[in-house]
Amino acid sequence: MQQVQQAEKTDQVRSYERSLARSAQSRTRADRPRVFTMEGRAWDLLDGVFAPVHSPSTRLGLEFLGLTADTAPAGTARGSFLEVGCGTGLIAVCAALHGHERVVAADINTAAVRNAELNIARHGVADRVRAVHSDLFSALPAGERFDTVFWSSNYVLAPAGYRYRHDHERAYVDPGYGTHRRFLAEVLDRTAPGGRALLHFSSRGDMGLLRHLAEETGTKLVELAATVIVEGDDPVSHYLLRITR
């Protein structure tokens, strides 16, 4: 009985319908802010863009990367940085504020690209951060590589045939893990020698399938950090994974 209950709980946590409902709620709730505060700074938030205040993933990403105000000194040179799925651009901007001298904030959602541009301007880092409309690496110049590539992924698995009803859903679910497979197959070609290809994943996703895709693409997943966050009534494990050959 206990095993059955645990399996049902796991299915609920991984449910793509629940994640789509979370997406709709975040996008339409009456208290959705136009400007929010994180890391002691104000950030613009446009309609249709993933809201960091409605999920712990952005804050966890900052912690995993050492980009919080109390974990890394500003002005420390750290090389180039690419954020895939940048949303508001918060992590990309913080990377620049912490010393990364060349930063790209990429997103497939055009509203997110505009949002990132607003926050790049708000925090005065346009000299070293650019926002691009890109499906993973598709819009980047051939051969452009980065010392750090980071993606806080849409780790919930949706059926392969699912079609997005709104771009906001792209931040929550990945049909058939098609985007995850492409990321694993392509990311090391976008990582500079000696650089790091990093993936923020969680137990809302299917780790077994992700590892299978890594094997298929000739890559390996190495866990660098893990933490458990209670989201609603669900304890959810979050992982920082490094992708290697």
How many helical elements? 7
Order of helices and strands: HHEEHEHEHEEEEHEHEE
Taking the sheet with the most strands, its summary is: 7 strands, mixed
The CATH superfamily title: Vaccinia Virus protein VP39
Category by helix and strand content: alpha/beta
Distance between the termini: 41 Å
Low-confidence stretches: 3-8
Shape: globular
Can you count the beta strands? 11
CATH architecture: 3-Layer(aba) Sandwich
Query: What name does the CATH topology carry?
Result: Rossmann fold
Structural domains: how many? 1
Indicate the mean pLDDT: 94
Rg estimate, integer Å: 17 Å
- Range of strand content: 25-35%
CATH domain class name: Alpha Beta
* Strand order of the biggest β-sheet: 5-4-3-6-9-11-10
Helix content: 25-40%
